[in-house]
Sequence to fold (506 residues):
Amino acid sequence: MSPRTNDGEPESERHQVDAVAEGPSDTDSEDAFAVEDTEATQALEATDADDRVAAVRRVAAAGRRWRSVQLGACAAMLAVALTAGAVAVGAARDGQRPAVATAAAVSPGLLANGDLDSSITALQAHLRAQPRDFGSWATLGLAYVEQARTKGDPSRYPQAEQALKRSLSLRADNDQALAGRAALAAARHDFAGALEYADRALKQNPYSERALCSRIDALVELGRYDDAEKAANLADERRPGVPVFTRYAYVHELRGDVTTARRVLDQALSAATSPGDIAYVATQLGQLAWNQGQYAEALTFYARALAADDTYLPALEGRARAQAASGRRTEAVKGLEDVVARYPLPGPLVALGELYELRGTKGDAAKAEDQYTLVDAWTAIARANGVNVDLDTALAAADHGDRATALRAARDDWSRRHTVHTADALAWALHVNGKDAEALTYARQATATGYRNASFLYHRGVIEKATGHPDDARTHLSAALKLNPGFSPLGAREARTALKTLEADK
Fold:
């Protein structure tokens, strides 16, 4: 028989709780529910924000040394910078409220109402006392997913997986944990797995908001846009609200129906009440406006998002991009420096690197290289924690890394899913590797749905120019610059140069 603590709980079960709820330690590594790969997934304790910033700066400094030798150390330092903030983070932000675990003594509503850190602490304490509460295990798993996703910290994904597995071991058919596994799979870019878990959750609870939303996400990311639209309509019938509205809008945006997307997002913003929801939806509206080249409007929405939550990173990043496109580059550089100093994600790292290159003052070339090195470090850490990073790798490496790596990653991603984003990434990776004839097919696929994306149009125009289609190239390069003349610090400049060349050759 297991030895029992004074309160009657088996001691071995208590150790299992600690191993999953707080992350493995040296003494926990052999527990039944400990994370399997402790070197890659061990959760670190929270440290002061200044320590995180210092860690990121050390990574940037390392980027100026021999790249192939220092990348391992660079990734290790970035892991410290990321996981140091894994506990002390803000609220869940994207409107994806965790499923309500009816058996949980700690309300999952806390996770959607702006205090994720306190919620996790409360859940951990509760599970030490009640380790067989399957609902709270599911809620904890979702909380870890939110931490990882909203803050760019993949180190929490293995803990989320263990917590959700624990919930399912206690009750195999509980929809909260199944929906959590769907959300986790989507966060790790395993969209086939996300769809499978979402369908299993919906068999148990057809009205699970989390599962309905994850199902839309999975279908979108698999490139099954017709099915995604049907799933969005179904979700809107069953669980109308901010999480569903934002996904419904995105499905229509991918079809080129910006009017419907804007209308639905306006409706979502009107329905939003929590600071997290307001920040998220206002940022989505800002992104939609930015995609159409409406920078003043985009900045207005980002300001509204930051009024609700002045730490919301997507709004801070979006504001900086809009400032850069508006010619306010000094503000944009400062804004992106602040973002990547706290959470170095591929998107803002590349944008900041390109702004350094565009500015071109003394030391900027080295600063730009630092940012691209950090992208490699982040993708290495994400991959070690179970995230498929092929698309991130392809997008960054095509312009700022190893071109052969970009093509390999793009082909791998295309083998699993046929989305407009993967088609564009594969087209551009083929182009930079001199395979323009093959690239043209994918560039056309990337723009086939009507999705209004200036980068896609730019890529297609450059590829058409390279394949001897000057009229088509002029059409698409002009369309890119008309739609969003500041879509990329370097890409927009290259688009204008290519267009001038085509005009001179007429």
Remarks:
- The longest helix spans residues 364-384.
- The two ends are 87 Å apart (CA to CA).
- The mean pLDDT is 82.
